[in-house]
Write a structure and sequence with these properties.
The protein is built from 6 helices and 2 strands, in the order H-H-H-E-H-H-E-H. The protein is rod-shaped, with a radius of gyration of 42 Å. Strands 1-2 form a two-stranded antiparallel sheet. The protein is mostly helical. It has 2 domains: 57 residues; 121 residues, no CATH class.
Length: 216
């Protein structure tokens, strides 16, 4: 019984022609192409259907969930699980740097020394000399005065930039992880240091140019 069914199915599929055209019944070559096209279609079409079904089954469904006022621990856990898709909008988009940053300049100990008395004594000791510029006490006094001026100039420059820095707004649309936040803060501080350093170097170059012009 099973053999008969198998033979009938085999004959059915063997003679199956989905692209039969009555106008070419007597054309053996075209009929043969129709059989070949039928077999190719029966193999390719079900394969495509199966691939689409497998793709739909394997593709994960995206769901959107909203959590009001998540805690820091919950945010870290959600970020660990859904790093690529997690979005946590900030309730306050901009805050001044001074609310979470405090910068303190550390100067060389020599800048904390009061050289005024020493400078006055050096200059007073050379007042009676005919050629003060050749005396080490006079040149030493000038160098100490220049050092004092540089220390005070740097302090004023840092104080002025610190006021602007503290009022600058840190803006971000979404909550940052601690690592990303610290990375941005380090970049901000490094940029602040580079700005002051560049400005101070430019000031020194102007002083050198002025001194050179005075000597000429």
């Amino acid at each position: 019984m099973l053999l008969v069914i198998f033979l009938r199915l085999k004959t059915f599929f063997y003679q199956l022609n989905l692209f039969r055209n009555r106008e070419v019944i007597n054309n053996v070559h075209q009929i043969r192409n129709q059989y070949i096209s039928t077999r190719i279609f029966l193999i390719v079409f079900p394969s495509i259907i199966l691939l689409v079904l497998f793709y739909l089954l394997l593709t994960s469904t995206t769901t959107i969930s909203q959590i009001a006022s998540p805690t820091d621990v919950l945010f870290k856990e959600l970020h660990r699980k859904y790093n690529e898709s997690l979005q946590c909008p900030c309730s306050n988009l901009s805050i001044p740097y001074r609310t979470f940053l405090s910068l303190k300049a550390i100067y060389h100990p020599i800048c904390s020394v009061d050289f005024e008395l020493i400078i006055n004594n050096l200059f007073n000791s050379t007042q009676s000399l005919l050629n003060q510029t050749n005396d080490y006490r006079f040149t030493g006094g000038l160098q100490l005065r220049l050092l004092t001026l540089l220390c005070s100039s740097v302090d004023e420059m840092i104080q002025a930039h610190s006021i602007d820095f503290n009022s600058t707004l840190f803006t971000n649309l979404y909550l940052l992880t601690q690592i990303d936040f610290e990375k941005q803060i380090n970049e901000i501080i490094n940029q602040f240091i580079q700005t002051i350093t560049s400005q101070f170097i430019n000031s020194l170059q102007m002083i050198r140019v002025y001194n050179f012009g005075s000597q000429v």
